[in-house]
Design brief:
The chain is of the alpha/beta class. 38% of the residues lie in helices and 14% in strands. The chain has a five-stranded mixed sheet, with helices on both faces. A five-stranded mixed sheet has the order 7-6-8-12-9, covered by helices on one side.
Length: 365
């Protein structure tokens, strides 16, 4: 288990050198990285954030393609990082291995499920990490090109950037403090003529008719809510529960693992869930993807807030965390249900299929 010297980011430290010759000029040569405890690495047990999982699984006999790619690209692995148990939380806590320290705000949760990966980079312990973070935009770009096998080409300018103006009021800070940063950056880089505005909730309501199966008073009356997006989140979480049960239900029911608070309740809710409305969930995915394809076109971008506010404080009571989770998934489910790419960084730059910007998500095809 990791200690204070590494901000609690690691579950296990080791060094795996690049698989290439040190004399080769490679895109990631000289960089170090950490691996989230969800990726297989030959000879090591993948712990999935839980000691019972590690205890009941053998060492991996192969290495995940993403890990192989960055090793072949010249990077050096420095170890495995802490994650939420079974990747089933966005808090970044782990009762077994400890909660990695939020470098910017030590009294707050680091966020998950890739908490250790994020903290390892924020603490300057590695240059980048797989669950996917990097210490600057250049490294993120280089790693992205290796993972996605992208050629070196000239950046493609966006045809338009659509600001989801009904989503930014979900923030716990004045929305103009965020949107103004985006608009000024876009005007400087591409000109203000490409900026557009849309009420995403209304657009989704009009173009994803199957969502009517997930609407109800419980969603409509929630505070900080865009009702059609809350319905989308409900469909997303139903599908998420089904996929979790399908992949891990038998193991959970047999082993009855020791799980932390919050995660335990969600895991068992998933395991006991039924297959009701699954076909409807898949219809929502298909309709949403078609709707966003029509909205964005080939080179359009949709800008939405990252999360509704600052990370919750450490030791926050479960009811408050549940509310934060509800509000966060109103935003997170848009990319999750459409299968569109979603990216975040502190600066704005663009290349084919690769976009980053400050304080908000950008979603693109």
């Amino acid at each position: 288990m990791a200690g204070e010297s590494d901000y609690g980011a690691f579950t296990e430290k080791f060094i795996i050198h690049p698989s290439s010759s040190p004399d080769q000029e490679l895109p990631l040569k000289g960089l170090t990285f950490a691996v989230k405890d969800i990726f297989d690495m030959e000879g090591y047990v993948t712990g999935f954030g839980n000691p019972d999982w590690a205890r009941t699984h053998s060492a991996a006999t192969t290495t995940a393609p993403a890990v192989l790619a960055v090793l072949s690209g010249g990077a050096t692995c420095m170890g495995r990082t802490v994650m939420d148990e079974m990747a089933y939380s966005i808090n970044g806590e782990n009762k077994h291995y400890g909660t990695p320290k939020n470098i910017c705000s030590p009294d707050r949760l680091p966020g998950g499920s890739s908490s250790g990966s994020a903290v390892a980079v924020a603490g300057m312990l590695v240059d980048f990490s797989l669950g996917w973070f990097a210490r600057d935009a250049d490294i993120l770009n280089r790693v992205g090109r290796v993972l996605l096998q992208l050629p070196e080409v000239e950046p493609v300018k966006p045809t338009h950037i659509t600001i989801a103006e009904d989503c930014f009021p979900l923030l716990s800070i004045p929305s103009h403090r965020v949107t103004s940063v985006l608009v000024k950056s876009v005007e400087k880089l591409f000109g203000g003529h490409i900026v557009k505005y849309a009420c995403l909730g209304d657009y989704v309501k009009d173009n994803v008719p199957t969502l009517k199966h997930f609407k109800g008073d419980r969603l409509e009356n929630q505070e900080y809510n865009v009702a059609p997006l809350a319905a989308l989140s409900s469909a997303y979480r139903r599908l998420e529960r089904y996929e979790f049960k399908n992949n891990h239900g038998e193991w959970v029911s047999t082993i009855k693992p020791d799980l932390g608070p919050g995660i335990s309740e969600r895991v068992w809710t998933a395991v006991r869930s039924t297959d009701e409305n699954l076909d409807v969930c898949h219809s929502v995915k298909t309709e949403l993807r078609a709707a966003l394809t029509a909205l964005l076109g080939d080179h359009g971008i949709l800008a939405i807030p990252t999360v509704p506010g600052l990370p919750p404080k450490l030791q926050t009571e479960s009811s408050t965390l549940k509310t934060f989770r509800f509000r966060a998934f109103i935003l997170l489910s848009i990319a999750g249900m459409s299968s569109f790419c979603q990216a975040l960084s502190r600066s704005l730059s663009l290349s084919p299929r690769y976009i980053r910007t400050s304080h908000f998500w950008v979603i693109f095809r």
